[in-house]
Structure formats: structure tokens, C-alpha cells
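[Solved] Which block belongs to which protein?

Original post:
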Amino acid sequence: MTRSALLAAAVLIAGCGSPKTPAPAESKAAPEYFKVDPATAASLQGKVRFEGKRVVAKRISMEAEQACQALHKEPVLDQAVVAGKDGGLANVFVYIKSGLEGKAFPPAKEAVVLDQRGCQFVPRVVALRTGQTFTVKNSDPVSHNIHPMPLNNRDWNQQQPPESPDLQRRFAKPEVMIPVKCNVHAWMKTYIGVLDHPFFTVTDQSGSFKFEGMSPGEYTVAAWHESFGETTQTIKVRESESASSNFVFR
């Protein structure tokens, strides 16, 4: 046998050997979620009020879309500023802006729903967690086109005809706030607040808010409104106590 044949046979024998056992895949460690000691858990509550001359809501013209106009027996008013009798301000996104750094919380399981009803987004302000399911419905007999315009998350633009399946999306990064429009109906607006923790809420006409199950510490609390912007306060929350934080927009 020639030398070249011997070399070829050696290579063939080596190639027919037992396959190498693949290295075991490294298992990911389960995330460690932050837990508050019930013995020291505290809360934070407050109210957001509007002071000043009453804001007269503007009428929304739906004449360009007769199908939308037919859905309403009464004039439709813009919902940018909605205040109760005692000045409680609705649609304010109140959240912990700082003081929770380095803490991870269990993911939210339930979906947050945004409906398109009466050719309006309902609700006006939406709040959800990063990774939480965001469901968009169309309850109208007309087509809509939902178009969130984030800076930190992925931009998307989706048409939703009548009786079409619900849309489901997720936002990967925290962002306050994401404006949303309908490309078909210019008057439709909503705003989305996305956070990586559970300490946030959207006020109703009472303007009240409350966060429970907080650990003692110093926090920056923020209140955001689409017409008045954002204002913040630094609050110290002590063990087993209920701290208060009130905001006034003028």
C-alpha cells in the first residue's frame, strides 16, 4: 500500500471514531425577585389636583367620518383635561421615578387592554409593565389604524378593520410616555406609560392614588399629564407607615 493510501485510511478511521459528547448547556439561574418584608412594608398615597380657571373642553368634529359621527347622539368633547368637582385631576400617570434601582419584580401576567370605541381610544392613558401583553381591540364598525410613536421601543403601525382579531404587542423597555395616534382619525389620541416595576397608576376624576407594599426608603414620585407635563417630589417612606405626596397642576 502506498504512503498516500495509508494516510487516507488513517483519516477515514479517525473520522469513524466515536462522536464527541457535546458540552452540556449552561442552565440559566432563576431570577431573584425583590420581596418586601411584611413587618416593615409601607405605603404611599396622595392626590393630584387642578387649580385655576376651568378648562373648557373643545368639541371634536367628526364630520369627515360620518360613520364615527353616527355613533354619538351628543357632541364629543376632547378629554385632554378632565377634573372633578373638587379639582381632582384624571388621566394623570403617577409613578415611582427613582428609588427602585437594582430591584427586579415578578412579571405581570394579565393583559392591559386598549379599546377603540366611538372613534376614541379608551382609556386616554394606559399603564403597563415591560414585557406585559398589550391588547388592542376595535369595537367600532369602522377601520382604525393604531400608531404608537416610541423613542426607546420599536415603532409600529397597524391597521385594524371592524371585527378583526385583537392585536397583541409588548414593549421591551421602560418609557414615559409613548404618544399614540390613529392615522385614519386625527382626533384620536392616547398615551402609554411603560415601567419595569409595579408602582404606578392612572388617576380617575378623584385624582387619588396609592401604592402599597413598598419597602422603606427615599423615592422620587412623578406625576405626568399630557397638557401640564411632569412634576416630581422626593418622599421618605418609613417602616410600616403611610407617607403622603400631593400634586397640584395650575
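(Second protein starts here: sequence line, then its C-alpha cells.)
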Amino acid sequence: MLEFQVKDGVAWITLKRPQVLNAINKELANLFRETLEAVEKHADVRVVVTRGEGRAFCAGSDLHELAPLSPMDAARYELEFAQIFSMLDRLPQPTIAMLHGHVLGGGLGLALYHDFRIAASSASLGMPEVELGWAPPWAMGRLAETVGFTKARWILMSCNLMTGAGAAQIGLVDKAVPESELLAEVEQLANRLSAMPPEGLKQTKLLLNRMSPLRRFDWDAAASEAFRTCYEKPEAQSRIAEFVAKKKKR
């Protein structure tokens, strides 16, 4: 489900559930946690890159695993994801999300926990949770920090999707390039960062994270509680049942 490689000071984390567009389930999230713990012990790692295998970076949480859970258990399930991905903040190394294909819901949330986001111009980014009947269970504060509250409201409440090129225009991603150039662009940034003295990067990252009140974990906890309130409503339950039934017919 996940591949971890270190090459020339760059740790490459690859999500490997291409058959479900790298949807996040508990096993994948736990593997991600174990990988970040391993990165912390790798003195030779200078930069961390997360990418997805196949047609997508990540299409969000695995609704098949979420569907049978009670609202309380579903909220705990999602909050655990937030706890794992927020570990990216404590890494001294700069982190990069390499985005292509679908970058939706929790997939976009995962990207927002990284320091940098480079996207294919053709990528599809958005948070469709409200349309499904619930509030995004994590990363809302990070979205507001990244693009501002006005644009965050539009993304979250309209559920409109945008391309990687459009995301670059509003600052949701740092740069968008043709998909054929994506790997080279990420490698160029990773190599530039890995060549810098690491302590300066570490201290700058630490200070920037401390300066941001929207990165506090209590915002993810509040989002999880809002998600629980929504998830127990009939509208949310019917939407997730429809989604699962539709997938089973394919």
C-alpha cells in the first residue's frame, strides 16, 4: 500500500492503492505514520516527497471503510488521520506533495499538511464533503491559512473543483506545470532544498508553524466534532449508502 525510498537525500513516499485512486484507509494511514517515524531516524534524509501511484495523488478517505462505522467511530477514525498527517509538521525536513489526477477531500487535506505543493496543471482539486452531507473532518484551518477565508469558503461550501493551474492562481499550490514535467519540477525543488544547510530550514519551518494559530490541532478536533454532528444526519447516511451501492455495481 505504500513504498518508501531514500535517494540522494530525498525520501520518496508513494501511496500505492491505485485501484481505488489511493483512497486513505486505516492500514495506509498507519503505514504512513510508521514511515514518518522512520524518516525521523534517517539522518541522511534532507527532503520528504509524497506522491501517488497511478491516475491520482489521492481521492480522499476510503468511504467503503467509513460507511459501516457509527458517527462517533467515524469521527474518531478521521481524527486519527489528522493526528498522523500532522506529524509532517514536526519533521525538521521540508515536505513536498506531488499532485496529479484526483486530489480530492482527504487527498487535498493530506496535501495541505505538506510545506510545499507542486501540481500537474491538469490535476483536479477540491473538497466535495459538504455536497455529500458533512463538513470536512480535518485540514480546514490549513486551507484557510493557505488561501484565505474568502477562497476557503468558496472551495468548501460551493464544492466546485479546480484544475492544478487554477489552484496555482489562488495560492493553493505553489506551482503548476504540465504533467509530463511534474516529476522533473519536484526533483528540482527537492534537490535545491536538500542542498541548503538543514538547520536554517528546520528553524524557519518550526517558527512559521508556531506563528500560525490555524495549524493548532484543536482545529482538527473541532472539525472532527462537526463531522460527527453531520454524519449522524439522514442526508449524510443516505449519500454514503448511495456512494457505496454505486461502487458495488461497477
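Accepted answer:
You had them paired correctly. Confirming on the second one: Residues 147 and 170 are 6 Å apart (CA to CA).
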